[in-house]
Amino acid sequence: MWKRLVEKITALRAHESSAANWNGISYAMKPPAGAAAVESFELNQDVRLPDDYREFLLQVGDGGAGPGYGLYSLEQSLAERGDGVWSLRDPFVAPLSAREWVDLRAPGMLLLHHDGCAYYTGLVVAGPERGTVWSYVEVQPGWVPVCSAAVTHADGKPYELEGSGSEHYARWYDVMLAPHNRGLRMTFSEHYERWLDSVVKSATTS
Predict the structure, then answer these.
(1) Residue 204: per-residue pLDDT
(2) Among 14, 90, 133, 150, which residue's Cβ finds the most Cβ atoms within 10 Å?
(3) Hey, how many other C-beta atoms are within 10 angstroms of the C-beta on 139?
């Protein structure tokens, strides 16, 4: 997997100046983190990083090319998170509906990248949702899961966002959080490779 990702990142660099690079940042990947650095982070934060993200740090890079404004390094992620009531070792508890609220500095949530304005993407490193990627939307419920495909109603019929009002988004978030869509939640490697594929495709067809 890691060789494939590196090859795709290399292909992406060839299109760095194309229109697909909407945020104007470099598609360069930072050097991989050393094993000692990763182990030190885990020891200091009292967590074990999800295996695919851990191997990405060791085999591909500690930040750089990525969704939004690029992947944070471990150091940048901690700096962006700042101090809060909860730590990374505290279990992330997923909201059950859009009537709940989970703060940006949620327990067990490692920030991966900034997506503009007040939007972020994070990786759960502790709790039942460990290993899944979530987006922070700044309205209730705060964090919603990143899904691999369009969510559906309980009967399997595709769900369509009905409008642009807050009530429409609340209903959409409720469907995203529903148990029947639980299997659509993505891992870090799935999320990252989907981004790579979409940007490379856009760059080569523009």
Answers:
(1) 66
(2) 133
(3) 14
Q: Which residues pair with 122 in a beta bridge?
A: 111, 134
Query: What distance in Å separates the CA atoms of residue 55 and residue 96, rounded to the nearest whole number?
Result: 31
Task: Locate all alpha helices (DSSP H) within 14-143, ordered by sequence.
Answer: 35-45, 51-59, 74-81
By residue range, what is the domain housing residue 172? 2-205
14 or 80: which leads in pLDDT: 80
Q: Who contacts 53 (Cβ-Cβ below 8 Å, separation ≥6)?
A: 123, 131, 188, 189
CA 76/CA 66 separation, integer angstroms: 14
What kind and span of H or E run contains 171? Answer: helix 166-177
Taking alpha carbons only, the member of 12, 7, 109, 124 closest to residue 66 is: 12
Q: Report whether 126 contacts 88 (CB < 8 A).
A: yes
Q: What is the pTM of this model?
A: 0.93
pLDDT-derived band at 17 (thresholds 50, 70, 90) equals low
Q: How many structural domains comprise the chain? A: 1
C-beta of residue 9 within 8 angstroms of C-beta of residue 26: no
Q: Helix 2-13 to helix 51-59 angle, to the nearest 10 degrees? A: 60
Return d(Cα 77, Cα 61) in angstroms, integer.
Answer: 14
Cis amide prior to 95 (ω within 30 degrees): no
Residue from 132, 142, 144, 143 nearest 176 by CA: 144
Query: Is the CB of residue 69 less than 8 Å from the CB of residue 25?
Result: yes
